[in-house]
Every structure is written in C-alpha cells, then in structure tokens.
Amino acid sequence: MYDPDHEQPVKPSKTRRKRDMEALQELGSELIEFSEEALVQLKLPEGLLDAIRDARNIHSRSARRRQLQYIGKLMRGIDPAPIRAAIDAREHQQETHTQTFHLLEELRDDLVLHGDSALGRVLEYCPQADRQHLRKLARQARREHDEHQPPKTSRRLFRYLRELQEAGTP
C-alpha cells in the first residue's frame, strides 16, 4: 500500500496483518485434510509438510490451535495462490462427484419406479448401455421394491449405471 500524499509505502494495519495471518491458518487447516499424495504434489517446503503431518496427529484443542498458528507462520514465506487453487479444484471435484452420484441415483430410481418409460432418459445419458440388461435389472429391482425385499438388484443397477458413467459418459 502507498500513501498518495507522501508516496511512501504504508505499513498494513495491525487488523489487516491479523486477518492475513488468520487466512493463512485457515488455509493450513484445509491442507490438513489433504491426502499425503496431494500434499506432495503441491511441492510445499519440507518444514511446512512436517508441520501439517504433525497437526494430523494432534487431538488437543489448544495444541492443535498452536500448531495451526505455526503452520500459518510457515506459510507467510510462500505464495498461497497455488494452494488456494488446489483447494478450490478439490472442492469443485467433490461437488461434481456428488452431483453425478445424485444423478445416477435419480436415474436408478426412475428406472425402478417407472420402468420402460424412464429408459429413454437413461439411454440418453448412457448411450452405450445395453438396453435389455437395463430393462432386466429394472424389472428385478421393481419386483424387489414391490415385495419389500432388500434392494440387492437396485444396488446392482446403480453399480451398472456408475460403470457406464465411468466408462466415458458425461
């Protein structure tokens, strides 16, 4: 920041510095949730990696708070932009996965409850699906549903839809 009147750098306020430190601590607490593989891919300094690994094993509330403060202090020396980008990408991936999961559940439920009338929507989403196999699974799942049996075939139908989706559908 610059003071326009004196054209000299202005020292950030204490409140601003505190907010920045708290933001880095929050970023560090999110890094604790990352897998070891994801942390290594971020190419963090070794001291920061060790501090994050240590924080995972701390269960005491006050000790964990102090460790997060330490992680925040270590993070002051690095650029947080790539870390924020990795966290955002991870959240987006989880959100996309959840949406896909709910869509597959909805397709399965439509097949079980509506049978052949819902087949068109499923085939639109999964064009490479075997129509006869889908119909067979849907009929069996419908029968289980009507007879109040455990949803064994309904689960098989969901697994089949998930396999189709993972094989290359949107």
Summarize the entry for a quick read.
The protein is mainly alpha-helical and 170 residues long.
Task: Describe this protein's structure.
This protein has 170 residues and is mostly helical. The protein is built from eight helices and two strands, in the order E-E-H-H-H-H-H-H-H-H. It has helices at 14-32, 36-41, 46-56, 61-75, 81-114, 119-125, 131-146, 152-166; strands at 2-3, 8-9. A two-stranded antiparallel sheet has the order 1-2. The chain is elongated, with a radius of gyration of 26 Å. It starts with a strand and ends with a helix.
Principal-axes shape call: elongated
Helix content: over 70%
The average pLDDT score comes to 87
Uncertain ranges: none
Layout of strands and helices, then pairs:
Blueprint: E1 2-3, E2 8-9, H1 14-32, H2 36-41, H3 46-56, H4 61-75, H5 81-114, H6 119-125, H7 131-146, H8 152-166
Helix pairs in contact: 1-3, 1-4, 3-4, 5-7, 5-8, 7-8
Describe the structure using short key phrases.
mainly alpha; 72% helix; elongated; two-stranded antiparallel sheet; 2% strand; 170 residues
